[in-house]
Amino acid sequence: MKQYKNLIVILALLLLVACGNERNVQENLESSSTNREIKITDDTGTELVFEDPPKRIGCLTEICVDTLKQLGLTPTAVSSNGITQEPEFFGEKGKDIAIIGGSFFEPNLEDMLSNDLDLVIGLGGVHDNIREALGSEIPLYIASPGDYHDSISTVEKLGELLQKRDEASKAVQTFEKQLEEYKTLSTHDKTALIMYGSDVNFGIDTNKSVMGSLLSEITNYPWEAPTGEGHNNGGVQFSLEEVLKVDPDVIFVETFSFGSESSPSLSEQLAKNPIWSELKAVKENKVHEVRTNIWANGRGIGSMSIVLNEAMSILYPESVEE
Predict the structure, then answer these.
(1) CA pair distance 57, 50, nearest whole angstrom
(2) What pLDDT, on the 0 to 100 scale, is given for residue 320?
(3) d(CA 310, CA 133)
(4) Hey, which residues does 102 pair with through a beta bridge?
(5) Nearest-5° angle of CA 265, CA 268, CA 274?
(6) Measured distance CA(154)–CA(304) in Å, rounded
(7) Could you give the C-alpha distances from 73 to 57, 63, 154, 158, 218, in angstroms and in order?
């Protein structure tokens, strides 16, 4: 009888353990299901919710391409070749990435749908209006960096969403280390200016733009203005008369080509204006045409790293050589 009672006790204990394990398994499954829900808020304040990290990503803006590269990822489709085929990004392999047709301002909706995308990343002031067109088919994340700090934040946020936190952290740390080193090396005594345009009606990057705010960390960049609207945050229209008042030591020029690549560069067009020849940078041959894809369109920390290297080699070559 005693053995029988002991057997009953053992069976009861086993039943309790089994029930407890079943309850723990159920709780773990529920917890796992909850943890899989990923929420992210884009730069318009719109919250996006995902059950799993997006895998197939379409880029309508270069900061998307740039950021994915920093995270060790490749976009499924892009709206233009842009920085994709630049040697620092995907080079020849960039030619294999699908193209989303249409224009930068009006990308082709059918191409986005046909590429079976999990996420589309667009630029603030340009692509906001396609959210309704995409509807529930494809979530739209809008990036709208105002200055270089916002570009860093984009890497961190997308790193969380795409479960690439370590890659994001490493990329940000590497960039910030490079910036700090250059800030130390620079004497900050040369005045620089970034100009952009496709004809004599040009604009400039102020110190509230991505690249303008970046250069203001390594040199004198006195071009102030409120954050602009549209796809070029921090950019304003300008005149050569206003440039001459400051008379920068070095001018970086971004030429936008909307037709033949053989069209004159912005600096060549501005040379027709007599005021151009009065500028110190022109007299001393310190006007530099730069890669528009990197300097104007990139906006991500990969592009900013390239800009830092190129700008420092021109502004303070003796410091970089040391």
Answers:
(1) 13
(2) 78
(3) 40
(4) 107
(5) 150
(6) 13
(7) 10, 13, 15, 11, 30
Domain span at residue 107? 38-144
301-315 and 148-161 helices, crossing angle to 10° = 150
Task: Tell whether 203 and 311 lie within a shared domain.
Answer: yes
Report residue 136's pLDDT band, with 50, 70 and 90 as the boundaries: confident
Element (H, E) at 70: helix 62-70
Tell me: do 307 and 189 sit in the same domain: yes
pLDDT 10s digits, 23-56: 443 444 333 344 578 999 999 999 999 999 999 9
DSSP character string of 150-175 = HHHHHHHHHHHHTT-HHHHHHHHHHH
**E strands in the chain:** 38-41, 47-50, 57-59, 77-78, 98-99, 119-123, 140-143, 192-197, 203-205, 235-237, 250-255, 287-289
Q: Is the same domain home to 285 and 204?
A: yes
pLDDT of residue 232: 55
182 and 305 co-located in one domain: yes
pTM across the whole model: 0.84
CB count in 10 Å sphere of residue 172 = 18
pLDDT tens-digit readout, 270-320: 999 999 999 999 999 999 999 999 999 999 999 999 999 999 999 999 887
Structure tokens at 166: 């370590």
Selection from 304, 240, 299 nearest residue 269 by Cα: 240
Instruction: Tell me 83's DSSP state.
Output: G
Q: Rounded CA gap, 109 and 283, in Å?
A: 49
